[in-house]
Fold:
Amino acid sequence: GTAKAEVKQAEEVATKSEVESKKEEEKKEEKPEEKKEEKRNTKGRHGGVNEKTILSSVRLMEYILNTSVYPREHEQLKELREETAKHPWNLMLSPADEGRFLQVLLKLMNAKNTMEIGVYTGYSLLATALAIPDDGKIIAMDINRDCLNVGWPSIEKAGVAHKIDFREGPAMDTLDLLLKDEKNHNHYDFIFVDADKNNYVNYHPKLMQLVRVGGLIAYDNTLWNGTVAYSDEEIADLPKYVRHFKPFLVELNNVLAADKRIDPALVSIGDGVTLCRRVE
Ligand code: SAM
Ligand code: CA
Structure:
C-alpha cells in the first residue's frame, strides 16, 4: 500500500496493453474479420491516460469524450487532468467520462456531505467539489498527500478548496475515527471508493453505517480491466498486479450482489463503477 508499491503496480499495469496487443496479434490470424477493430485497440490510443475503459471501440470512446465530455469539462478539471498526464503514475487517474457521470449523479442527488477514499492527484475530488453546493463537504482520504500537490493549485483556482477536509493515513483508521462520533452515522449522501481494492469488502460494512438511507456508495474499478469475467488460466499472461487483485474484486461483486440492504448497479463506464444505493 505504499507509494512505491503503487508505482510498481502502475508500471506493471502499463505493460498490460502490450500483452493485450500481443494477444490480439495472435487472434488476428485466427479471425481475419475482426482484424480492423482489434488493430485499433492498441497502446496509447487516448494519449496514454484514458485507456481504462472496457468500451472496446476506440472510435466510440473518442466520440463520447469529444462530443459530451471535453466540451463540458471545467477549465480547472482539464488543467488537473493535463498536469496529471505528466505524472509517472497517471494510470490511476479517473477517466473524464466517469468524472462527468459522477458530477451529474451528485447534482441529481443534491449531495452535500460526501467522502472520497483514494484521492491521488485529485481529479474525482475536484469533480465532486465542483458538483456539490458551496457549503458542501468532502472528507478526502489518502495514505499520502504528495500526489495531491499536483492538483491542489487547480482546486484552489476553481474556488472549491474550502469544501475539502483532507485526512492523511490509511482510510480504515479514518473511518474508525469517524464512526466513534454518532453524528457521522447515517450522515453521508455520497461516498466514492477508489483506493486499495483488497480492502473494499472491509470498508463496506463501515461505509454502510456512514452513508444515509437513500445515499450512494460508488466502488470504482469493479470490472478490473475486464478480468472479473475470466478464469485465472485465461488471465495467466497478464501482469501480476492485475492477477493479484482480481479475486478481491470478484468477491466484492458477489458481496454487493447479495447485500439486500443496497440497490446495486454495476455501470460499465471507465473500468466499471458499482453504484450502491442504501435502501435500509
Ligand atoms: N480517485 C483518484 C482520481 O480520480 O484520479 C484516483 C485514486 S488512485 C486509483 C488510488 C489512491 O488510493 C492512491 O492515491 C493511493 O495512495 C490511495 N490509497 C491506497 N491505499 C490506501 C489506503 N489504505 N487508504 C487510503 N488511501 C489509499
Ligand atoms: Ca479508479
